[in-house]
Amino acid sequence: MNYARFVRTLVFLVLIGHCLHAREPIPEDRGAAGLWQSLKRINNNARAMHITAHPDDEDGGTITLLSRGMGVEMTLLCLNRGESGANLVTGDFFDGLGALRTVELLKAAEYYGAKVRFTRFIDYGFSKNVNETFRNWNRDEVLRDVVRIIRTEKPHVLISRWQGMPRDGHGNHEAAGVMAQLAFDAAGDPKRFPEQIAQGLAAWQPQKLYSDNRREGDDWTVRVDSGVYDPVIGRSYAQIARDGLRNQRSQGAGSSISRPGPSVSYYKLLASRVGEAAKEKDFFERVTMESHPEVARHAAAARQAFSASAPALSVPHLEAGLAAARADGLNAKERQFTAALQQALGISLEALVEPENPPTGPFADFRGYEIFGVATPGQTFRVKAALHEQGARKVTLRKIELSAPKGWTVKPLPDHRFEVTVPMDAAPTRAYWKRGSVQETSYEIVAPELFSMPLPPAPVVAKATYLIGATEAAVESAAETSFIDSIGVQHRRTLVAGPPVSLRTGAEWGMLPLGRTESTLTVTVRNHVNGSSEGSIRLEAPQGWRTDPVSLPYSFSKENEESILSFKAIAPTLPDTRAFPLRAVATWKGREYRESFEAYTQPGLETVYLSQPAVQQIRAIDVKVVPGLRAGYVMGTGDEVPEGLRQLGIPVDMLDSAALATGDLSKYSTILLGIRAYAARQDVKTYNPRLLDYVKRGGVLVVQYNTQEYDKNFGPYPYSMTRSAEEISEEDAPVEMLDPNDPVFQSPNRITSKDFDGWVEQRGSKFMTTWDPRFKALLASNDTGQKPQRGGWLVARHGEGLYVYCAYAWYRQLPYAVPGATRIFANLVSLGAKDASWRK
């Protein structure tokens, strides 16, 4: 079983039930407060772009002040989606984590009042210098992406979160600062990236470039205090931004509550096409912007007429301004006027998938109902659209239309209802970015027209066109479905299209110890059909291999049901160390499906679906395991280490709170604590004395990578991680065995320097800084320019057993069957053997 995905599935099925409707406007964008901010935007033609490296790097306070306080049109450009960060909430890493951080940032940016854009490039892991970053990222291609986005969004001012200097503290941060400076010059030069010009993009020269990451005592040009109070909204821009940042829960960002008062950032002017000054009052001094007097006159009048208790007073001026913006061909300003007009009128549009059996009776409005979440091939359903008018000024509804992808059938019915049929070859609503392996550091964009967008668009969208006076306007809404959470409360979510069945293997990589010819592979089948569904699953194996059984049937009665099917793959001879792919294939109604369709979300966030081929690469590894082992595993935030244990042939039990509290721990030769267990589980802290007693009585306890929550002497002897715990981010960093004769390097696999080759993403993180002399350090490693770090693997005798803290990244290596790491890990777990040499 893929335990990380199991954890995420539980999170999705249970926690998503407590989501707010992801498209529900936040309080700051509703009613009079929302209109007030829209009026600021129609009165300001300024555009700015904030450039940073990862989600949660951004200066949210400054973005929010500019957008909500000044009405600046803000774009937040992130170079990557944060694929290799920490994950405090689920067991997802790499692309799954990037998807989760995408929707986290999207929600945060809703608070900031900014739109989000991304390049193709991938967070490949912590990088301590910019040279490593540009060894992994093609410098010119990153610049190409950034320039394209600047030419598309046309910002007057670029605001870099980072300086492009070592002070930025991360190679990706420094690279983002460098890119901002290079793009400032390149975007306005039509000779740079001329293919973009040929495709219809015009060169665009930003007028000023600033950088952040400065302090009051540094050389700065602009002082920005986002702690300014907005009396209409009722709090400061810094407070709003902090609430946005708190949505980035996977990184533990914004966990503290923002209090009223100053919140100051300092920015330095790095380049300007409009002159310089030692100090400036804001980013837009001397900046020239487009002038449209007629539009500006109506915008000013709408703002002057604003009344929180009578927002319709602004409507006549918004009507006139909308017409003027259209006459001048100002698409962005037209969108701003339309949004303000909707808020002033109190207009909203609903497009709801109709339930098959809607509630009836006198209390029908108080009874929630569920509808399918994924529209599948061949399905027919109905959508009901309704335009709601809650303001004092009424409109004339002209028409409501429903759009769907090419090949879909939309049949209008009376009363703004529509019958929709999904074609058998419907494309799933899934991420438009993908890569072939975690070794790749940029995505393939499978839908170029969506480049830089945070998410794919909704497939089914309603549009209501109405008249207000003589002015025509329109409002759109994605079609939505409904679900009931675990406590019986109804919520909505955007309708997506998907395959009838989703397939995933137990792991992307499987290990087959040399000498074996048989591997067990599990395939998890998930039903997306609204109702019963049946088909079969088979494995496509390499030439000469056979599978047992050849195929297995599946049968479901409801959407979201799952089944785990088990196959044996048998090699014709002892396999060599090449990778051998085993592909799962589902057959449903004569069509084949070969991919997963996995949802990534958290409460209150949008949902993004990723698809990966249902393939497990089997790699034969020269690894031995002591027979007779039995492992206990305490899952932390989620990882796939238990699957690695199973593939090594080691029985593993997942230990819950009851097992930690009263279970017989002595039956386990080795107990392993999953990553960040001390942060994720209070029961680990509560029953830590039982774990120490298990060691004292002869057990082996392995504590994997933990963050500072563990830095409270939970071990048998004192240690200190500190807030600045070191990590080794270069996966090929040199490693020294401090005692090559230690039992863990001798048996059952003889470990050499070659076993540290071919690692992925990193060596490890959160190394100890100091430790009691009763601990023994086993390895030393260091990144380029870093002092050798010895605190990543510590072992100590405690009573009759062994206590191990090992921060090396087994959770990164085992899912990809990295041979050397697998051999070392097998030795680590084998320390629990009754006849292990250290016991003698």
Return Rg in Å: 29 Å
Q: Let me know the largest β-sheet.
A: 7 strands, mixed
Shape: globular
Q: List unreliable stretches of 5+ residues.
A: 1-22
Arithmetic mean pLDDT: 94
Task: Give a short overview.
This protein is an alpha+beta fold and 840 residues long. Helix content is 23%, strand content 28%.
Description of the structure:
The protein is of the alpha+beta class. The chain folds into five domains: 24-45 and 292-342, no CATH class; 46-284, Rossmann fold (3-Layer(aba) Sandwich); 346-498, no CATH class; 501-620, Immunoglobulins (Immunoglobulin-like, Sandwich), CATH 2.60.40; 625-839, Class I glutamine amidotransferase (GATase) domain (Rossmann fold), CATH 3.40.50. It contains 19 helices and 47 strands. The protein is globular and about 90 Å long. Residues 1-22 have low confidence and may be disordered.
List the helices and strands and how they pair.
Layout: H1 3-15, H2 31-42, E1 47-52, H3 60-70, E2 73-78, H4 95-112, E3 114-118, H5 130-136, H6 139-153, E4 157-160, H7 171-186, H8 194-198, E5 208-214, E6 222-225, E7 229-230, E8 235-236, H9 237-245, E9 264-272, H10 293-304, H11 315-327, H12 331-345, E10 347-353, E11 374-375, E12 380-389, E13 396-403, E14 409-413, E15 417-421, E16 433-434, E17 444-445, E18 461-468, E19 471-478, E20 480-484, E21 490-494, E22 496-497, E23 501-505, E24 509-513, E25 518-527, E26 533-540, E27 546-548, E28 551-556, E29 562-570, E30 579-588, E31 591-593, E32 598-600, E33 608-610, E34 615-621, E35 631-634, H13 641-647, E36 652-654, H14 657-662, E37 670-673, H15 677-680, H16 682-686, H17 688-696, E38 700-704, E39 719-720, E40 726-728, E41 735-737, E42 764-767, E43 770-771, E44 776-777, E45 779-781, E46 793-798, E47 801-806, H18 810-813, H19 819-830
Parallel strand pairs: 1-2, 1-4, 2-3, 4-5, 11-22, 24-34, 35-36, 35-37, 37-38, 38-47
Antiparallel strand pairs: 5-9, 6-9, 7-8, 10-12, 12-15, 13-18, 14-15, 16-17, 18-19, 20-21, 23-25, 25-29, 26-28, 26-30, 27-29, 30-31, 30-34, 32-33, 39-43, 40-42, 41-45, 44-46, 46-47
Helix pairs in contact: 2-3, 2-10, 2-12, 3-4, 3-9, 4-9, 5-7, 6-7, 10-11, 11-12
